[in-house]
Amino acid sequence: MKIFHTADWHLGKLVQGVYMTEEQRHVLEQFVAAIEEQRPDAVIIAGDLYDRAVPPTEAVNLLDEVLAKIVLELETPVFAVAGNHDSPGRLNFGSRVMKMNGIHIAGHVQKEHEPIVMADEFGEVHIHLIPYADPSQVRYALGNPDIRSHNDAAEAIVENIKQKLNPEARHIAVGHAFVTPHGEQQENTSDSERPLSIGGAEHVEAGHFADFHYTALGHLHQAHHVLNETIRYSGSPLKYSISEERHQKGFLIVEMDGSGNVSAQKQLLAPKRDMRTVEGFMEDILRHELNEDYVFVKLLDETPILYPMEKIRSVYPNAMHVERKSFGQASGKSPAESRRNMDPMVLFNAFYEEVKGEKATEETETVFKEVLQEFLREESDEKEGVKQ
Asked: What are the strands, taking DSSP E only, across the chain?
């Protein structure tokens, strides 16, 4: 059986005030084209279909278009769960009708768990949908007062599933959680991943999923496996933060044989515009060729530059952020502290040239020096008066 595993589409995502809908459509068209070409038996979307509970109309329309293409035209069933960014009720709405058409979406945790049954030439494959839920919601749904953390919740949900686990079938779990090898605390893989819990109680032990032949996870934006190669994150299909700059985005092609042995291969998706860092002096950057990537610029100039974003956007029209690289960080100094330690004349000359478009004359420099010296002398006198 061949399955495409994807997650964290975050439709309706805003990055630095820019809606990513056009970029999302571009990569999802590639995803649909891969389905049309390779004809998988199913598609799994492991949560965070939307970026927020009430997504913009464009995001809703895009999801509708993509799912209609996959399910109705390509006749490929879709299995999806709600993520922490999704509205469970919104995704659950119309689930019975969608199920009849091959879209299986779980928004809420159910005590009476029933897997979705698929079959191939080797027998049955059971898909277990485990949507994201706060521990308090799981505690209520399962009637278990001992559930306090995300790890408790995951353990209780899996134990509930295992009560009816058919030993003759192969089993796939679909979840949205922060899973680590032993439930230990780890850093997020991206700045755009919203914490699931305050105080570090969000991590889930990978061992809870040991009885499934494959576990398809969402939430972390970098593709990787946890503990063993059958427990995997597909990662997001697109970069949503400069912290994801070095991520290779795509989806997983999962193949399962008759014994439940699994292999996973990553297929990359090409973004319409890359998201990356550009570093250099303003003078050099302005010589670059016109480029529409989403760039975060780090300037090496030590002197102030007026209206840096306007200048950068003459070369990079989709620039998202500009900052001056901190030269003082290695010594523990902040950028502001580094500027305070610079020669006042260097700062003045740079500022003057930016404003006037020409270098300060000797006479102007002399006037500035006199004013500065007078200011420093008055400041020193005031300090002495305070001491006395």
From this structure: 2-6, 14-15, 18-19, 42-45, 78-81, 103-106, 116-120, 123-130, 170-176, 178-180, 203-205, 214-218, 224-226, 228-233, 250-256, 262-268, 275-280, 294-299, 321-324
